[in-house]
Design a protein that fits this description.
The complex is a heterodimer of chains A (141) and B (405). Chain A is built from seven helices and two strands, in the order ααααβαααβ. In chain A, helix 2 crosses helix 6 and helix 5 crosses helix 6. Chain A is globular and about 35 Å long. Chain A starts with a helix and ends in a 7-residue tail after the last strand. Chain B has one domain. Helix content of chain B is 26%, strand content 22%. Chain B has an eight-stranded mixed beta sheet, with helices on one face. In chain B, helix 3 crosses helix 4, helix 3 crosses helix 6 and helix 4 packs parallel to helix 8. The termini of chain B are close together. The N terminus of chain B is likely disordered. Classes of the chains: A mainly alpha (141), B alpha/beta (405). The interface between A and B is medium-sized, with 19 and 18 residues.
Chain lengths: 141, 405
């Protein structure tokens, strides 16, 4: 490898490091519990379904929370989604979800998009969530 | 045809008069005005409800600049209920700032009417443009507006906007007006004019909103406007080009109400307009990429070094600009009716014919600009729309025949 190619490879590696969270832990590795997702489903029905739809399908005007949703959020730390839900949703009463409820909703949304449950609960800790990569769906699973 | 009742009533009033005003003499020479096709305002015609949040920004639209990492960000958001109406003038301001740093390509974040128009203005100036947006224009809040030329609607609060803002607003409004004129008469009528009748049992006067001294709180103390007198009122600055209401003589009023005015209003047909803009954007080599930005830092990941930020109400969260105040509005949409090409309004309930339907609005006349302020609930409510349809039906059909249209 000549020096120029090495520099390009190094730059590419750095770019990848910058774009992905610090640890290798991603949403396909079981980052929430079934209990959390069940709790999230209950909260979703009460606070979110009125706009986003009972099946998370959305409308022409309100974003769905499956499919295209992953394209809008994946490749980034899961903390981004957690922070957004906590400060901006529900739109008619932003900032009214507790951190625990927000975590449960994140778990519910992950499950709806095919991410598997695991044995350890997702913690409402912004720094920890910032180290979890929101990974692409694994539809073949 | 039931509206002949109205025409007949007008004719009877004419027969009782002695001196004929000039306009009636002209009518006698030219024959009676052709009758209007009555609107069908029955509930079965209601095919859509739309609700959206206007981004009222107390100081007026943000057209400022800032740097994020090494990216120059030029803001173009926060146009209240005036985004469509000011789109060309506001884009000209934002793109002008972009051009001043001599880029050959820029990014536009957001694909509502402000983002898409900014993109095209940049292309017309020779720049390569990529739009990054969560949704194309047809799914943005812009598409859920009512679509009339209302450049002064909830555009700013007079105090926070400061003494320079009215001049800037006037420039943007006049610039936009001329640009809309270039789109008249095109296929699909992206921009059109229609007659708008205001109908009343009482003399029609322009409503004014003097400050209520009993209301001590105001935007500066609460973060929300508290009364109508806080809003900037700018429309009179362009009344030399924008048609104003004229009172109708009894023989000119097709509806037979004791009082009526008529104005010519400019409106936008969303399907044709957005098709026209998207076609030009793509024909000029524009690229659209679905991307949802989550924080200002994400701008630093875009390849373009100059970015026009045009996310409207979403800027409140994306840019953490809490001076953006939500102002809820909603419309009902009826099946388009061939031959119906006018609007009526009474007691701030209105029905406005457009290419993609008749728009029904029911805006409480006593709330004025305060209606919906601070309300970010974006689900529509059907009842006020049905109330307006039932009320306005009286101008076309007797009570015992309503719903039979």
């Amino acid at each position: 490898m000549n020096r120029r190619a090495l520099a390009i490879a190094l730059a590419g590696g750095l770019a990848m490091l910058a774009a992905s969270p610090a640890t290798g832990r991603g949403t396909q590795s079981g980052v929430y519990t079934t209990g959390q997702a069940d709790e999230g489903a209950r909260i979703y029905a009460a606070r979110c379904a009125m706009c986003h739809g009972a099946q998370l399908e959305g409308t022409v005007e309100t974003p769905g929370l499956v499919g295209k949703f992953v394209a809008n959020w994946a490749g980034r730390p899961l903390g981004n989604l957690f922070a957004y839900l906590g400060r901006a949703m529900p739109q008619n009463a932003p900032g009214t979800l507790s951190p625990e409820d927000t975590t449960a909703l994140v778990a519910f949304i992950l499950r709806a998009n095919g991410a598997p449950a695991g044995s350890r609960p997702l913690s409402p800790d912004a720094a920890g969530l910032g180290r979890i990569d929101f990974e692409a769906a694994s539809l073949a699973r | 045809m039931q509206n002949r009742r109205g025409v007949m009533r007008g004719t009877l009033a004419l027969a009782g008069g002695l001196a004929l005003p000039g306009s009636l003499r002209a009518q006698a020479l030219l024959g009676p005005a052709p009758p209007l096709v009555p609107m069908r305002l029955s509930p079965d015609q209601l095919i859509d409800l739309k609700c959206c949040i206007r981004p009222l920004r107390a100081a007026g639209p943000n057209l400022g600049t800032e740097t994020v990492r090494d990216r120059l960000v030029i803001h173009n958001y926060g146009h209240g209920g005036s985004g469509w109406s000011l789109s060309w003038g506001s884009a000209e301001v934002a793109v002008g700032k972009a051009l001043s740093v001599l880029p050959d390509r820029i990014a536009v974040v957001g694909c509502g009417i402000i983002g898409l128009t900014s993109a095209i203005v940049a292309q017309r100036a020779g720049l390569a443009v990529t739009i990054y947006a969560r949704d194309p224009i047809q799914q943005t809040r812009s598409f859920r507006a009512s679509g009339s030329f209302t450049p002064g609607s909830r555009i700013a609060l007079a105090g926070p906007a400061g003494p320079q803002f009215p001049d800037q607003w006037e420039h943007m409004a006049r610039y936009s007006w001329k640009m809309f004129r270039t789109m008249l008469g095109l296929p699909g009528e992206p921009v059109a004019f229609g007659d708008s009748y205001s109908l009343s049992d009482n003399p029609i006067e322009r409503r004014t909103w003097p400050a209520d001294p009993a209301i001590a709180a105001r935007y500066e103390t609460t973060g929300l406007p508290q009364q109508n007198s806080e809003f900037a009122r700018l429309d009179s600055r362009i009344r030399d080009i924008v048609p104003q209401s004229v009172p109708l003589q009894p023989g000119e009023n097709p509806f037979g109400t004791p009082y009526a005015t008529r104005s010519s209003h400019m409106y936008f047909n969303f399907p044709a307009y957005s098709h026209l803009l998207m076609t030009e954007f793509l024909a000029r080599g524009g690229r659209y990429e679905m991307r949802n930005l989550h924080s200002p830092a994400d701008v630093g990941d875009l390849p373009e070094r100059v970015v026009i930020h045009a996310t409207g109400y979403a800027a409140r969260d994306l840019w953490q600009d809490h001076t953006v105040i939500p102002v809820r509005g909603q419309t009902g949409w009826l099946v388009p009716q061939p031959g119906v090409n006018y609007s009526i309004r009474s007691n701030n309930m209105s029905a406005m014919a457009k290419a993609d339907g008749i728009v029904i609005m029911n805006n409480n006349p006593d709330l004025g600009e305060m209606l919906g302020v601070g309300d970010s609930m974006e689900l529509p409510n059907r009842a006020p729309v049905e109330e307006a349809m039932a009320s306005l039906s009286r101008f076309f059909w007797p009570a015992d025949q309503r719903g039979a249209a």
